[in-house]
Amino acid sequence: MHTVAAVIDQGALTFDLAIPCEVFGLDRSDIASPWYRFMVVAAGASPVRTQTGFDLSTPYTLRDLEHADTIVVPGWSDPDDLPSGALCDALRTAHVRGARVVSLCTGAFVLAAAGLLSGKRATTHWMYVDRLRERHPDIELDPDVLYVVDGSVMTSAGTAAGIDLCLHLVALDHGQDVAIAVARRLVMPPFRAGGQAQYADNPIATDGLGEPLSAVLDWARDRLGAGVSTADLAGRAAMSQRTLTRRFHDAAGVPPGEWIQRERLRFAQRMLETTEQPIELVARNAGYGSVTAMRAQFARRLHTSPRSYRETFRANGVA
């Protein structure tokens, strides 16, 4: 029987911990037998105080990791809370003997501290990518994907991506049909491929543009469906396109055309999430010249299609 261990320490994030508990800890032998043996391991003292104000008591300690085939480090209390030397040693030892070592969200900081991500591809929640890159420049970070599998070391982005990665592990162990059956039990769509993009609503910061140009951007947002262009922005701002581009890049770090593309994409995302509009109408209202143009932007920037994006968010109760 394959043994999965989730390792936590003081300040544990309960939502992140709940993911491996739900996927591996519940008896699903009616789907595949044998299922997993699951244990929650305390990296230090037990009980473990969670960030949500209650304690978790477990009899398992770092010594029990010797028997784990897969070790999952859920989102860590805080990236600045360094893991203990004992935990890092236990993770390195497990990795050397062939165990899979997996992090969810900010758990990547623990794997990095143990040296398990050095020279490897990895990811984490998009909000913490810069901090992880600054602290561990030897990691090949990919901030745009849901999860990364680099040999026996695996990392995921935010919480929902952690579910996808855990279901990917189920597929490796029991086959894709079993993983899809577990996804149905969780009332979620079939797990997404790791190469799909993180759906981070990360708009370009334009605060430094000042009031006149900010008003121009508000004007442009109301006219995305009309196919607003850089030339339109320049005309509205009463300046040349060259001057607009220079000022925009100095303040926002990108040219105005990139801002338009991102705003167009964000508008299309919201329409797909919250309305039943046909995809053709979403493309027109977002200002794309054609559905093909919108599909190309979704493929390039989100690594998915408009239809798949809508299905994902509707299946998760967002739309």
| Unreliably modeled segments | 315-319
pLDDT average, as an integer?
A: 89
Secondary-structure-derived class: alpha/beta
Task: State the strand order across the main sheet.
Answer: 2-1-5-6-10-9
Number of strands: 10
The termini sit apart by 39 Å
Structural Rg: 23 Å
Shape: elongated
Helix fraction by DSSP (H/I, runs of at least 4): 40-55%
Description:
- It is a single chain.
- With 319 residues, the protein is α/β, with parallel strands linked by helices.
- The chain has 13 helices and ten strands.
- The protein has helices at 14-25, 85-96, 108-113, 129-135, 159-174, 176-185, 211-221, 230-237, 241-252, 256-274, 279-285, 291-302, 306-315; strands at 3-8, 37-42, 48-49, 55-56, 70-73, 100-103, 121-122, 140-141, 147-150, 153-156.
- The strands form three sheets. A six-stranded mixed β-sheet has the order 2-1-5-6-10-9, sandwiched between helices. A two-stranded antiparallel sheet has the order 3-4. The chain has a two-stranded parallel ribbon with strand order 7-8.
- A hairpin with a 5-residue loop joins strand 3 and strand 4 (55-56).
- The longest helix is centred in the C-terminal third of the chain and has 19 residues, at 256-274.
Q: How does the SSE layout of this entry go?
A:
Layout: E1 3-8, H1 14-25, E2 37-42, E3 48-49, E4 55-56, E5 70-73, H2 85-96, E6 100-103, H3 108-113, E7 121-122, H4 129-135, E8 140-141, E9 147-150, E10 153-156, H5 159-174, H6 176-185, H7 211-221, H8 230-237, H9 241-252, H10 256-274, H11 279-285, H12 291-302, H13 306-315
Parallel strand pairs: 1-2, 1-5, 5-6, 6-10, 7-8
Antiparallel strand pairs: 3-4, 9-10
Helix pairs in contact: 1-5, 5-6, 7-8, 8-9, 10-13
